[in-house]
Specification:
Helix content is 65%, strand content 0%. It is mainly alpha-helical and 283 residues long. It is globular, with a radius of gyration of 19 Å. It contains 16 helices and no strands. The longest helix has 27 residues, at 256-282. It folds into 2 domains: 17-95, no CATH class; 97-283, Hypothetical protein af1432. The termini are far apart. It has helices at residues 4-13, 19-28, 35-42, 46-56, 70-77, 79-91, 108-122, 135-140, 146-155, 157-166, 171-179, 183-193, 198-206, 216-231, 243-252, 256-282. Helix 4 (46-56) packs across helix 6, helix 7 packs across helix 16 (256-282) and helix 9 packs antiparallel against helix 12.
Length: 283
């Protein structure tokens, strides 16, 4: 079983979250936000600047003319899309390895997280009075705990599989039983360590809770996680026995025909984002 010290050390050894990106994310959600202040922060970081301009000029955000400077990019895209882009380019490297406790092929976890991010943002219409700025990031980082827990899940795969297949446990409960922690617990700890917004931390922590969700962002991330799995993104065993999926479908009164329509309505935007960021990853 993993010790708390193991987890603390693993989190401390993670590369630090980009400080300028963190400042920019905090500014976007603050009462002091202005486009000028955001541009001033981003311009301090050449890598952030280059990557935001690259994404701004990609097919994903196709504009009538080429964007050459950060101020123009911020003005054209708006703070919600800039928040999403900052999250993408700041976290992509964390998913660059093979996490074979959860995925068969390198990049599956990144594609799954991207699909959940897109879906969470697209499904905002299901909720009222919600902060749309952070939806994409909440979806993108909901499974960040897997980057640490993967090695232990691989080592204990037989025991976890036995509990799922023979004892009727869902995967998250089997993780807890065998390892003493879940990827949701660890994900929340990572995001707290990075000082990200509490709503994003909560989505990582609670998206597999098998109870009615009190947080609308958690509900959307859970529903998006289910739809991503149904679409075939990271359709591994850890997604197959989740009671939280049944709970969230009941909450929104979503039937099979509704699931089919949601997939049809969203698959193009999901694939566009995944394909675009595969290209960006290749440079």
């Amino acid at each position: 079983m993993i010790t708390l010290n193991d987890i603390v050390q693993a989190i401390e050894f993670l590369p630090a979250f980009n400080k300028n990106a963190q400042k920019a994310l905090e500014l976007i959600r603050s009462d002091n936000y202005t486009n000028k202040k955001l541009a001033e922060i981003i311009k301090l970081d050449a890598s952030l600047t280059a990557n935001i301009l690259k994404v701004s000029n990609s097919a994903l955000y196709a504009k009538p003319k080429h964007v050459y400077d950060i101020s123009t990019a911020i003005s054209l895209l708006g703070k919600q899309q800039i928040f999403s882009i900052l999250s993408l380019i700041s976290t992509q490297d964390y998913f660059s390895n093979l996490f074979d406790g959860y995925e068969v092929h390198k990049g599956e976890l990144w594609e799954h997280n991207l699909s959940v991010a897109v879906l969470t943002e697209n499904l905002a219409y299901l909720e009222k009075d919600i902060d749309k700025t952070i939806l994409f990031t909440a979806g993108l980082l909901h499974d960040i705990g897997k980057i640490i827990l993967s090695i232990w899940v691989k080592k204990e795969a037989d025991r976890i599989d036995y509990l799922v297949e023979n004892e009727g446990m869902d995967f998250i409960s089997a993780e807890q039983s065998v390892l003493g922690f879940t990827h949701s617990d660890i994900g929340a700890s990572i995001l707290k360590h990075w000082n990200l917004p509490k709503e994003i931390i909560s989505s990582a922590k609670h998206h597999h809770d098998n109870k009615l969700f009190n947080d609308p962002i958690v509900r959307l991330v859970t529903l998006s996680d289910f739809l991503s799995f149904t679409m075939g993104f990271l359709a591994q065993k850890d997604n197959m026995y989740m009671k939280s999926y049944d709970q969230v479908l009941q909450y929104y009164n979503i039937k099979t025909k509704d699931v089919e329509k949601m997939i049809a309505d969203n698959i193009d935007s999901v694939l566009t984002t995944i394909n675009e960021f595969k290209l960006i990853d290749k440079g």
